[in-house]
Each structure stands twice: as structure tokens, then as C-alpha cells.
Amino acid sequence: MKTTNKKNAAMILAFAVLIVPIMAYSASLIPCGQPAGTPDIIVGGATYQTTNECGFNDLIVLANTIVEFLMYSVSVPLAALGFVYAGARLVLFQDKEGEWTAAKSRFGDIALGFGIMIGAYVVIKTILFAFLTTEQANFMQFMLQ
Q1: For residues 89 and 54, what is the distance between their CA atoms, to the nearest angstrom?
Q2: Phi and psi for 15 in degrees, rounded to 5?
Q3: What angle do CA 39, 75, 62 make, to 5 degrees?
Q4: Range among 15-19, 99-103, 126-130 with highest mean pLDDT value
Q5: Is the pLDDT of residue 129 over 90?
Q6: Which helix (H) or strand (E) holds 127?
Q7: DSSP single-letter state for residue 141
């Protein structure tokens, strides 16, 4: 790897490390300890006041908010873009055998990765639902929707 590539990668990583907390704070992902006037967070129909003191339940709400964001807002569009890219390569390189095979394998890889991700999500939700008592299920209802 060239020195300039290492410098660019280090600069991007430093920028990401510095900007992620600011984005989380501005997006009101942190469900507690916010200044007065910060809008409440609504997760799965449940409303959480952001001006309350932080506790363990708020950590669970934060984790669930991040997982929902990654599952619905990031992975689905990325999978769609991957399928579009692989499909475009199938159309553009119809006469080249190697490119055709690579594009078909890319389709399979994207489908397999997306399927594993969705399967893991469903398994975790099923296990949570199976082992929770009714009191715990009432608290964790936002995760089971």
C-alpha cells in the first residue's frame, strides 16, 4: 500500500471516529441525558424521554435503535445497490464468459450475505420472544416488533 493511501485511510478513520459521536448526539439516538428541549425518541411505538437520567434500559434502547438503523436503513439499500451493480455487469458483459460468471457469483454472494443477516435477525428475535416472561416482554416489546 502506498504511503498516500495509508495517510488517506488514517485521515478518513480519524474523521469517522470524531464525527460519529456528534452525529449520534445530533440525531437523538442517545435516549437519555439530553438537554431540555431535545425531542423524545420513538422506537417501535414506545416513546422515551431524552431528558431523563441514563440507565441500563437506555443502553438497551440505544443498541436496539442502532440495530434497527443498520437493518432497515443501511443493509437493504446496500443489497439493492449490489444487485443493481451485478445485474448491470450481467447486461454489459454478455459476451465475456469470465465476467458473466463473476457477475452471477456476485449475485449469489450478495443474496447469501443478506439471507444470513436476515436469518440471524429472525433467530435472535425468536429466541428473545421464547425466553422472555410477560413482564420482560412488556419492557422489551419495542424489540419484538
Answers
A1: 49
A2: -65, -45
A3: 35
A4: 99-103
A5: no
A6: helix 97-131
A7: G
What burial class does residue 130 get, using C-beta atoms within 10 Å of its C-beta: 0-12 exposed, 13-18 middle, 19+ buried? Answer: exposed
Distance, in Å, from the CA atom of 117 to the CA atom of 106, rounded to the nearest integer, reads 17
Residue-wise pLDDT tens digits, 45-104: 677 776 777 777 777 777 777 777 778 888 888 899 999 999 999 899 888 888 888 988
List of residues 6+ apart from 114 with CB closer than 8 A? 75, 79
**How many residues appear in the chain?**
145
Q: How many Cβ atoms are within 10 Å of 68's Cβ, its own excluded?
A: 16
Report pLDDT digits (tens) over 51-63: 777 777 777 777 7
Residues 41/50, Cβ–Cβ less than 8 Å: yes
Q: Which residues have C-beta within 8 Å of that of residue 90, sequence separation ≥ 6?
A: 100, 103, 104, 107
Evaluate if pTM is beyond 0.85: no
Q: What is the DSSP string of 39-88?
A: PPEEETTEEE-TTSPP-HHHHHHHHHHHHHIIIIIIIHHHHHHHHHHHHH
User: Among all chains, which residue has been given the C-alpha cell 478518513?
Assistant: 12
